[in-house]
Structures are given as C-alpha cells and as structure tokens.
Amino acid sequence: MLSVLPKQIADESLAGYLLRLSLRNGFTSPLDWLDKPLWYAITKNTISKKQRERLSELVPSAKSTRRLNLASRHSVLFPDCHTDMPRICPFCMKGTGYLKEKWRNIGNLTCERHGCALCDSCQECGEQLIWSPLLLEGTCTNELCLCPIQSSPISSQISELFIDEICDCLLASLFIKNPYTTILPIYHHPSVCNFNSTLEQGFNLLTRNEVYEQLRERLAAPTSPFYQLSAKYRFFPLALLIKHLNSAWPISNCYASFVQTTQVSSTSNSCIESFIVTFDSASELLGITREQLIQIFPELITKKAIPRNQQLDIAAIIS
Ligand SMILES: [Zn+2]
Ligand SMILES: [Zn+2]
Q: What is the domain range of residue 192?
C-alpha cells in the first residue's frame, strides 16, 4: 500500500513517523491506510501484540517496542508518563521536520536544543494540537487556523521540575478543577488539554498560600456538598491530595497547621446522600474500621482482604 518507505529516525516517535509516511505517500492522514483501532492504540501507547504484528506487515521498519516500566511509577493517576496527544518544539519542527519520542514524556517540559517550552496547543486559536501531518510543518492542526505554532514561555521554577514533582502538579490540578474530589481517577496515561497551564495551576496550589486558601474556603463554603459534615469530611479532599504527593510542598505545612488549629471531630448530625472513598482512604485517612464497614457492607465479611482501591459509599457511617 505504501510505495515510499523512509526509515524511522532513531529518536522519532512512532505516531510521528506514521504521519511522515502518510505525507510522503500522498495521504492526508494515517487513517487513510491504517485501521482506526490500530492508529488509536499507537497514539495511546496501548498497542497489543496482534496490532504490533499487523503494523510490521504494513511498515516493516516501524519500531514500537516501548514497554511500560511499571517498576518506576511516578503518578498515582497513571502508570504511563507519555501523553496521548502530541507536544512539539516548533523550532525543531522547522529545522528537522520530525516528531521526537521524548516530547511525549511529560518529564520533558522543554526542548533540550532550543530551551523553549514544548507546546501542546496553539497560541493563536487555543485549540489542542492533534496527530495530523500539519504538525510536521509546525502548523496549528486546527484547519480553520493553520497559524505557525509558537512556544510560550514557562517560568524557570516550573521548567526545573522533575518527573515526580510534575506528577504532583497534575494531581493538584484535579482539585482546582473539582475541589470536591474524594476518589482519584485512574488513567493509563496523562490526558491533559493545555498541559503547561494545567501544570502551572497545580504548581500554584502546591506552592502559593493564597491559592491553597481559596481552595480551603471553597471546601468550607455553604455551596460545598460536604458543608453539613464535620471538618474531617469537609476537608477530606485536601487530606487526599496531600497523602498522595510524592514530594514535600508548602501546602503540606499549611494543611498541617490548619488541622492543628481546627477541631477535627468525627461526629456529625447531618445527612449526606453519598460520600464515596476508597477502602484505603476510609481506613488510613478517615480512621473507619473494618468492623464499621462490615456493618454497612455485610458482603465484605467474606473477603479476606478488601482491595485498597475498592470504592465504598460511606454516607451511612458518617451521617
Ligand atoms: Zn527544539
Ligand atoms: Zn491555531
């Protein structure tokens, strides 16, 4: 099907290589010659053995050997630190015209050659970049825009972060989006729109007292679904965030001194429809015993060990 087969460059991403092959062979998208599930698996790094075989029939030189290293997990949210959406250095694109594999890794925030921040969205129209051959020209992939992609600066404090800290910032950004988070979502890989600004939002929550105070006030406000509950449950999202941070951040101290000065009683006279936490959170952060849980969920009695991530609605216990 493909008549021109240039080789994959040593540090080129597989998705980027297939975009390049598409262009060289006169196609406008890899979907013109690859089936949808295979292409999506390539962009999401979830390619199966069968799909790998199918790909090597079509493109014998394609390298898709990147394996997930589960031993070095950095985030509680996802095992794979590679994004499913493209991130690029616009200067490299102008110079070399291919997409590097390392740009997909969120541990890399800047281009090591040019020092600029990697971009995942267009400065002009704000749209997220998608896997399109337009990337190879350094052009916005929104066909109504087509402006040259430009890198916007990130602060030096952020560009110096290491992977564990970057993952902490992404975790914190979840609580900016939804302060009433009581269960952490589990993904395969980071899937964030406008990565750099999400990172900055999370960083600000972890490091700036006024951003932390804003979140704490939202949790204390009458508009909070947990307003009727005692402080222990009202501020549980903060405890959840802090428990799962890899590194030490100013927010941990702010929260610790808040807990010391607040009466964190666990008695409450109010009613709440639902309050879902994992078994892990219930026992470790909220001090709920296995016996208390079994009273509400008799089916747990037959389990030797309750899975740490099992979700439990503890409204009946805390109301
Ligand atoms: Zn570059
Ligand atoms: Zn644009």
A: 68-265
